[in-house]
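Q: Hi! New to this. If I give you a protein sequence and the SMILES for molybdenum atom, can you show me the bound structure?
A: Yes, paste them in.
Q: Okay, here:
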Amino acid sequence: MTDETKAGTSRRAFLRGSVALGGAVLGAGAARAAEPDPLITETQGFAQSLGDGVDATPYGLPIEYESDVIRRNVEWLTADTISSINFTPIHALDGTITPQGCAFERHHSGAIDMSKDEYRLMVNGLVGTPLVFTYSDLERFPRENHVYFCECAANTGMEWAGAQLNGAQFTHGMIHNMEYSGVPLRTLLEEAGLPDDLDGKWVYVEGHDASSNGRSIPIEKALDDVLVAFKANGEALRKEHGYPVRLVVPGWEGNMWVKWLRRIEITDGPVESREETSKYTDTLADGTSRKWTWVMDAKSVVTSPSPQAPISHGPGPMVITGLAWSGHGAITRVDVSKDGGKTWETARLAKPGEKMALTRFYLDTVWDGSEMLLQSRAMDETGYVQPTKTQLREVRGENSIYHNNCIQTWHVKENGEAENVEVS
Ligand SMILES: Nc1nc2c(c(=O)[nH]1)N[C@H]1C(S)=C(S)[C@@H](COP(=O)(O)O)O[C@H]1N2
Ligand SMILES: [Mo]
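A: Thanks. Here is the predicted structure of the protein with molybdenum atom bound:
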């Protein structure tokens, strides 16, 4: 393993490693390039006709060859598609920013249609002056930009009792990562007038949709980094993500990221709404429930190779890649195991980890063609290490749903195909 660990650390070491492993590694690629390729013809390389004019695509969609990179739902998971979820195709993406068009959606009563003109946001409760803001009012406050992940607490929730869904999209795709532009919630609360004594105060936030998705947030978080956002990745939020305005609650479970944000009330206690009592609480191994698990613990997953992204080449140079994130701050290190957690190699982070945002990792390695039990293990700036499924089950049992941040295993076979499995 040590040779490969070194190979993963720098491009030069990697190339040396490949050469050291001999002709077999470089040979595969070189042999292919040396043979005549039937697809290469005299005319190839120069188009024989003109392309589309600039008026053909006023707003671009991915080219037809990428039509597989789409959100997908799991039909048996929910009774209908109104109160349901679909999943980000994380197995097919790279970098860290999730395009809005394929970023997972989760609604409790469907995605509603609301124009900026119709939009109103009320701030009331224990404030100096209750206020109602229009969309254009919001645009007049100083704005900030931040990249954050949004993970549904139910992400990986089907995997508690055993390996279930065959694909990173389905096991880990209830997550997206966008650059938000918006006004700090603190600014709007200060505009309405904060109570003199903040001790024990909460804010209750709810949406314009029929479910309202009401949640209580401690005032300390509300005044810290919560954003009232109206742009994502530079453009207006999509309808399904809460157009025109949603709440962004960095590092905390997706359910608190209220879409179509309607009302913010300062209260003197938590409301104990449906979404924070009968839902989004954690069943423990002893059968009792734990409430208020707001922060999403450090987690990671190998996105390629994975069941929907099998290895498409023979033995030789190979890139293993995935995503890591933590609601407690920045990711500092990700390790990858090829043997189900017996030995680990430290992966390369594409960029230093950013607080409460996805981090891309790569292990530039050499595949010897044998089967692997691929895992990744994230660490964050608090020193927390992503747990194994066994460790998590000791506390949580097997009947939990939410907050499953266990280490994921893919069984990669000699033919390059991968499957969701568990190792004990
Ligand atoms: N108003 C409203 N806000 C909502 C929801 C909802 O149904 N209605 N779903 C919540 C849940 S459970 C999650 S995980 C996130 C999902 O955000 P997304 O649809 O942008 O992925 O939105 C949250 N905000
Ligand atoms: Mo959620």
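A: The pocket of molybdenum atom (ligand 2) is lined by residues 106, 152-154, 254-255 (CB under 6 Å). Let me know if you'd like me to explain how to read the tokens.
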